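Internal ticket - ligand job 383, glutamine:
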Amino acid sequence: MKEVSQIVSGFKESIFATMSHLANQHQAINLSQGFPDFDGPSWLIQEHKKALDLGHQGKNQYAPSPGVLSLRQSISENYRKFYQLEFSPETEITVTNGATEAIFISALALLNPGDEVVVLEPFYDSYVASIEMAGAVAIPVTLHAPQFELNWQELEAAFGSKTKAIYLNSPHNPSGKVFTKEELVRIGNLAKKYDSYIISDEVYEFLTFEDAVHIPIASLEDFGERTITISSTGKTFGLTGWKIGWACAPPALSHALRMVHQFNVFSVSHPAQVAMACALKRIDSYLPEFRSTYSKKRELFIEGLRNCNFNPLAPAGTYFVMCPIPDQGTTDIEYCKKLITEKKVAAIPPSAFYLKAKDGERYLRFCFAKKDETLMAALKNLA
Ligand code: PMP
Ligand code: GLN
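stdout (structure tokens):
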């Protein structure tokens, strides 16, 4: 038989699936893959159930390809309210199967074979896979641990005449970094100088702590004209399994995104979109408790790790914490295996998020989107 696609044959199972599988196999507490072990709000689950009963209104049939209009309207209203950003529901917002689909269609919509795309490592794993599936080349630039800072000379050196885009992620998984306005302006100016697009993954936009503030790069200067802003309800409403995300961009860019989306999935779960439209309308009353719940979990877990003689890096955003490996000379993969078998706790080895630097080998990534009792049990095992 002929071989499968050369690009696809180079792909491995995602580290998230691998670690969750290992956690189950060894009955370890799973602090690896990023998802809550508790349910999203019960009122929202009720809205979904109600939408399922609206079959007579066609809510169990295909949704419009760009997304249910009431959801696009809610998304648009929230961008205006939180960031003074204007996205037209009709022409600039496309509902996708989670942010993952938005990341993928951005690559397919923008890239030609041979184009270059800058990725900041450590990166979310689907960026490079999406770039490669479009036949383009990922150019890694390292966010240097432990502060995950950019070296601006290194960043500019990665840009050139072939640079079509940069994938940006703030708040950043796995480091927890929240990019400042100054950093975003410098990145935006580089994208402008090299006439590149900005694909901005903002799925943790509402998970910021203490004085960290999330700023969408599309809201700064005139960067919006070259930016695709991506987000997802998976993190914000703790329902990662519903896979409702979106991509917002100017009309011509959105048209290209919609063409890929149309021939990729055509449309996204109709009843889940109807429910999420209601959820986004209620976001103001939902967010305070959401934020305080995660702030408390962050404190509990970081404090607990410190008591276990770890030295975690407190994240400014996201529900992840990077932690240097205490044993010198042990790589992240070896250490994660040891943690699972000996301590019954699963973490992510971050080297999976790098193409170039070896920084990831010295860290573990834990997810604290877990019940307090799960976090306490994990800390007990780690002690
Ligand atoms: N981007 C980042 C940075 C993520 O961490 C994740 C998933 N956790 C995604 C995108 C994918 O989001 P979704 O589940 O909505 O596809
Ligand atoms: N984004 C999640 C994480 O970082 C995992 C998502 C997935 O498994 N595809 O853990």
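Auto-summary: The domain at 6-40+286-382 is CATH 3.90.1150.10 (Aspartate Aminotransferase, domain 1). The CA atoms of residues 116 and 163 lie 5 Å apart.
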